[in-house]
């Protein structure tokens, strides 16, 4: 379903919730908005890495729960079920994927690539959440699960490589 309302970066400044939903404007990318949103999400990872584990988990929980509203609002505003321009879910999913990993190019690139593969290919159980859960919760949940699965893959890789993170 094509969105009925096509915002511009200029109009996003007038609607802070839609501005968040569209990833600070990254969701307006005409090519691969989910990937563009994930690239912009990477910019926040060094800031999140400064947080203690407790604060990081709190931020991820708040971003996830508020994301349900942000994504539902944005979908309603755009007039579509899950338009590709909504990328807040990619932000949160990628932040989950990289939580607790060193901020280095190898971990950022690995996390980004694995997360994008899970998000694009939607293997089980991601596909189930994407297809069966409606609204803002459904928009968020498949990316949260993709983030968790990416985190598990990265932890497994670290363990196999004998890295103590």
What structural keywords apply?
single chain; 165 residues; mainly alpha; 9 helices; globular
Describe how the helices and strands are arranged.
Blueprint: H1 9-12, H2 16-21, H3 33-42, H4 45-49, H5 53-78, H6 88-98, H7 105-121, H8 126-132, H9 135-160
Helix pairs in contact: 3-6, 5-6, 5-9, 6-7, 6-9, 7-9, 8-9
Notes on the protein architecture:
It is a single chain. The protein is mainly α. The chain has one domain (9-160). 68% of the residues lie in helices and 0% in strands. The protein is built from nine helices and no strands. The termini are far apart. The mean pLDDT is 96.
Q: What is the subunit organization of this protein? A: single chain
Average pLDDT across residues? 96
Q: Figure out the total of helices.
A: 9
Order of helices and strands: HHHHHHHHH
Helix content: 55-70%
Distance between termini?
43 Å
Count of distinct structural domains? 1
- Percentage of residues in DSSP E strands: under 5%
* Tally of strands: 0
For the biggest sheet, the summary is: none
């Amino acid at each position: 379903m094509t969105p009925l309302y096509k915002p511009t970066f200029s109009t996003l400044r007038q609607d802070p919730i839609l501005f968040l939903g569209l990833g600070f404007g990254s969701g307006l990318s005409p090519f691969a908005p989910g990937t563009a949103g994930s690239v912009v999400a990477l910019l926040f990872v060094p800031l999140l890495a400064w947080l203690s584990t407790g604060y990081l988990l709190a931020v991820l929980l708040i971003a996830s729960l508020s994301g349900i509203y942000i994504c539902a609002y944005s979908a309603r505003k755009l007039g579509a079920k899950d338009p590709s321009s909504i990328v807040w879910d990619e932000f949160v999913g990628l932040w989950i994927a990289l939580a607790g990993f060193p901020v280095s190019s190898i971990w950022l690139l690995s996390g980004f690539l694995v997360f994008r593969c899970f998000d694009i290919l939607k293997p089980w159980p991601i596909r189930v959440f994407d297809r069966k859960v409606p609204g803002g919760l459904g928009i968020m949940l498949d990316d949260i699960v993709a983030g968790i699965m990416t985190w598990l893959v990265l932890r497994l890789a670290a363990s196999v490589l004998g890295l103590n993170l």
